[in-house]
Write a structure and sequence with these properties.
Elements (H helix, E strand, L loop, with lengths): L1 H13 L6 E4 L5 H11 L5 E4 L2 E4 L4 E3 L5 E3 L6 E4 L10 E3 L5 E8 L6 E4 L4 E9 L11 E6 L2 E6 L2 E3 L4 E6 L2 E6 L2 E3 L3 E6 L2 E6 L2 E3 L3 E6 L10 E6 L2 E3 L20 E6 L2 E6 L2 E5 L2 E6 L15 E5 L3 E5 L8 H7 L7 E3 L5 E3 L5 E3 L15 E2 L27
Parallel strand pairs: 1-2, 2-5, 3-6, 4-7, 5-8, 6-8, 7-9, 8-10, 9-11, 10-12, 10-13, 11-14, 12-15, 13-16, 14-17, 15-18, 16-19, 17-20, 18-21, 19-22, 20-23, 21-24, 22-25, 23-26, 24-27, 25-28, 26-29, 27-30, 29-31
Antiparallel strand pairs: 31-32
């Protein structure tokens, strides 16, 4: 028994020595060679993509745990899906402990990279671009992890998504940082997820910069414990180009940071400039719903100190002219609909719709100055963010 135990330990310690490197270069048969490498890889292997442009005609998939896919940089290795057949994602990942780094995807017909049920996944220095700019026929999501525990998104850039550039949904233990979301409908979106840290990102020229919300009718409910901090949220003024019927088609042009129907969210130390509807918006879900599990109200949202520089000067709201006149030509930076619970640090300038019931719309609004209490104690930051072990993969 002792000999067997020692042998097993030696095999386990030696396992990394058997990890293989699968090198793939651009060329006429790149589609087949790259997909073959993704299929034949074994846990611990690395797929290395040489510099160049890979012209691909179909989506790719990875279903092997513990694989790294590495390119020569987000401007060096480009997976070009302009000629993609069908409407699927560029790359679908359904395995755990995967690292994706240093490459780009251009013009996927559907989402850029989708990972589903992929725990402990890392997206590092990935670029997803729809080169024609904002268009309703672009893919919905650029970076799209869903139903995962352990998500680290670091140093990515997404442009042109017709829903959200960087989206994390129905997941737990999330960090989105050091990334750029530009000219999407929603720049960064955290949906029906818990324990998320969104920090040191740039959200610009989107319809809405950073959105934190819950929706009814999804398998995973009850999002919350989210920190949105130290982000630059500037000039989110692109007209909404989401396809009709999409939930983000209702996002108002010029929304900086929006919190909707979420629990325990801290918004602090962000720089918000040039968001013409509202730098910060805290609201309830506005539509009818029949999901008994769902709470449509924002709860325990905390607005900490932020820097506000121009915003609320051209709001996409009913009665905008009257509102601007009432507030002297520019709306205060923090908008609350009056439903649920919110606190703000002393000196926060804001206004409230003073709604009394969810789902009644702006017709029931009685706008007035924001009156809320100061935060009660320190925000509980325990357990928020991706597992620390995921950072170890970023070295090298």
């Amino acid at each position: 028994m002792i000999r067997l135990t020692i042998a097993a330990a030696l095999l386990a310690s030696a396992a990394p020595a058997f990890a293989a490197t699968h090198s793939v270069a651009p060329g006429g048969d790149a589609q087949a060679r790259l997909q073959e490498a993704l299929i034949l890889a074994e846990p611990g292997d690395e797929i290395v993509l040489a510099e160049g442009r890979y012209v691909l005609t179909d989506g790719l998939s990875l279903d092997v745990d513990g694989v790294t896919v590495r390119g020569a940089g987000m401007d060096g290795t480009v997976l070009d899906f302009t000629s993609q057949q069908g409407a699927g994602e560029g790359l679908l990942v359904t395995s755990d402990n995967v690292t994706l780094r240093d490459f780009a995807l251009e013009n996927p017909k559907g989402d850029g990279i989708k990972s589903k049920g992929a725990d402990n996944i890392v997206y590092h220095r990935i670029r997803v671009t729809w080169t024609r700019g904002p268009h309703e026929s672009n893919g919905a999501y650029g970076i799209y992890p869903v139903e995962s525990t352990g998500v680290l998104v670091d140093g990515v850039k997404v442009t042109g998504a017709s829903d959200a550039g960087i989206y994390v949904g129905q997941s737990n233990g999330i960090t989105v940082r050091n990334s750029i979301a530009e000219a999407n409908v929603a720049g960064i979106e955290i949906e029906n997820s818990r324990n998320a840290l969104v920090e040191h990102n740039i959200a610009t020229r989107n319809t809405g910069g950073i959105l934190i919300f819950d929706l009814p009718g999804l398998p995973v409910m009850g999002g919350g414990n989210v920190i949105v901090a130290n982000n630059l949220v500037v000039a989110n003024d692109t007209p909404n180009f989401a396809p009709k019927g999409n939930i983000v088609a209702g996002v108002r042009r010029g929304t900086g940071i929006m919190v909707m129907a979420n629990d325990k969210v801290l918004v602090e130390n962000n720089i918000l400039s040039g968001n013409p509807t509202a730098p910060v918006m805290v609201i309830a879900y506005t539509q009818p719903y029949d999901d008994e599990r769902y709470n449509p109200l924002p709860r325990e949202v905390v607005i900490g100190p932020n820097t506000y520089d121009g915003g609320g000067y051209a709001p996409q709201l009913d009665g905008a002219d009257m509102l601007l006149a009432a507030f002297g030509g520019e709306l205060p930076p923090v908008l609350w609909d009056g439903l649920g619970s919110m606190s703000a640090v002393a000196g926060t300038a804001g206004w409230s719709l003073n709604l009394t019931e969810q789902g009644k719309g702006l017709g029931a609004a009685q706008p007035g100055p924001l009156t809320v209490t100061a935060p009660a104690g320190e925000f509980d930051r325990s357990g928020i963010g991706a597992p620390a072990a995921l950072d170890e993969r970023l070295a090298g």
